[in-house]
Amino acid sequence: QVQLVESGGGLAQPGGSLRLSCAASGFTFSRYAMSWARQAPGKGLEWVSAIYSDGSVTYYADSVKGRFTIFKDNSKNTLYLQMNSLKPEDTALYYCTKGWKNSGTRGQGTQVTVSS
Going edge to edge, which strands form the sheet with 45-51? Predict the structure, then answer.
């Protein structure tokens, strides 16, 4: 069955960097767009970034544009989110999802906390 396993979260200082990974299995990863979403305590799900199956098109929320980069390695069935210049407001549980901004299939999430 479809499985998405996120990793790479943790505690970072403001201005720091983290790289999230999402290992995918159970489907033909190279044929699917993928997305990252996040949910902060008491808030709704926010779409952070998305990428076409071949990486040719990407989407970024205005709040992360210029700081985050999404990419996928189809040879490793892995999705990544490089997060630079982190801000306290980036603190959230980050999920990877199968599809273009589609929350139907997602992993368990990885916690990102940005604090000094």
Answer: 10-12, 110-114, 92-98, 34-39, 45-51, 58-60
